[in-house]
Design a protein that fits this description.
The structure is a single chain. It contains two helices and eleven strands. By secondary structure, the chain is mainly β. It is globular. Residues 1-7 have low confidence and may be disordered. Helix content is 12%, strand content 44%. The chain has helices at residues 13-22, 86-94; strands at residues 26-33, 39-47, 57-64, 68-73, 76-80, 100-107, 112-117, 121-126, 139-143, 149-153, 157-161. A hairpin with a 2-residue loop joins strand 4 (68-73) and strand 5 (76-80). An eleven-stranded antiparallel beta sheet has the order 5-4-8-7-6-1-2-3-9-10-11, sandwiched between helices.
C-alpha cells in the first residue's frame, strides 16, 4: 500500500492521532475483510490510483489486525474478528461503505478504541485479552502520500513505524 503517515520531527504519536481525529468526519469509501481476522477501512477523499497495483487510494487507510474487534449496529453485534465466513463478513462490511466515521474514542485504561459511524454502526477495537502480546499492534493508520505509518500497541502506545 502506498498510503502512509509522515510524522513531522518532534511530533508524537499522540499528536498524530489527535490530528486524525481532528480530520473527522471522514466518509467510508471501502471496508474489506483481509486475511484471518484483519479488516481495512479506506476513509476520506479519493486520491490517485496506486502506480503499481492500479488499486484506488483514499486519504486515510486503517488496517485493524492482531486484536479483537466487533462491529455493531445499534446494540446488535453484526460481526467479529473470529467470523470464519469471509463472504458473510464482506457482505456486512459493505454496509459501512458510504457511512461516515464521526468519532473515535480511546480508553487508555484498557487500550480499547470505539469508532462511531453514521447509520448506528460502531466498531470496537480491543486487545486480544486471551494470550495477547502487549507489543502486538492493534492497528496501523496510513495517510496517503506520506512516508511513515502510525501504529498502536498497548506496550508501545502510539508510535511511528517506517
Amino acid at each position: 500500500m502506498s498510503a502512509i503517515v509522515n510524522l513531522r520531527p518532534g511530533e508524537t504519536g499522540e499528536e498524530r492521532f489527535s490530528n486524525f481525529r481532528e480530520a473527522l468526519p471522514l466518509k467510508v469509501a471501502r471496508a474489506r475483510r483481509g486475511f484471518g481476522g484483519f479488516i481495512t477501512l479506506d476513509l476520506g477523499q479519493p486520491r490517485a490510483a496506486d502506480a503499481v497495483t492500479g488499486e484506488p487510494q483514499w486519504e486515510w487507510h486503517l488496517w485493524v489486525y492482531s486484536c479483537d474487534w466487533d462491529l455493531y449496529l445499534d446494540d446488535a453485534r453484526l460481526l467479529w474478528r473470529r467470523e470464519s465466513d469471509n463472504a458473510r463478513a464482506n457482505h456486512i462490511l459493505d454496509k459501512l461503505e458510504g457511512e461516515t466515521l464521526t468519532h473515535v474514542e480511546h480508553a487508555t485504561v484498557d487500550d480499547c478504541f470505539q469508532l462511531t459511524f453514521t447509520g448506528g454502526f460502531k466498531l470496537n477495537i480491543d486487545p486480544d485479552f486471551y494470550g495477547f502480546d502487549g507489543e502486538a499492534d492493534l492497528f496501523m493508520l496510513f495517510k496517503h502520500g506520506e512516508r511513515d505509518v502510525l501504529s498502536y500497541s498497548p506496550k508501545r502506545r502510539f508510535y511511528k513505524a517506517a
